[in-house]
Amino acid sequence: MPKEINFHFKSPKDSPGYLLGQLTMLWQRRLKKVLDPLDLTQTQFVLLAALGWLSKKSNAVTQVDIANQSNADRMMVSKVLRTLEDKGFITRQEHETDTRAKTIRLTNAGETVLQKAIMEVENADLDFFSTLDENLSSFNSNMAKLIEINKTE
Question: pTM higher than 0.90, yes or no?
Fold first, then answer.
């Protein structure tokens, strides 16, 4: 007879990590449906959105800025930005003051696809999370708190 496996939680439904994983997979599946027609992956969308946010305040957004804004690995960001450049959604140019950095900018095609993607993703989010009703704000606050506490790990 196999050895009994012990769990801290009595049921998968008691495990926040398990539930978050399940929810994340379902949400990512929903986003894939809306992003596929735009030729974007979720990661590409996240980085474009980070660039869009950062570009509102600066014309000298760097790869490091995008990685920090999206809590993403810098090497992964570099690879994804190359793909976005190949698709014609961004440009990478020499930084005016930092010779080690590149300035990342949205192209006209990038602005167009990002605006379409934002509309689609925000509508998908509103639909996906609609059952939370008045609890959505609390849910968002709790997620933001967890992100802030754990983002340095």
Answer: no
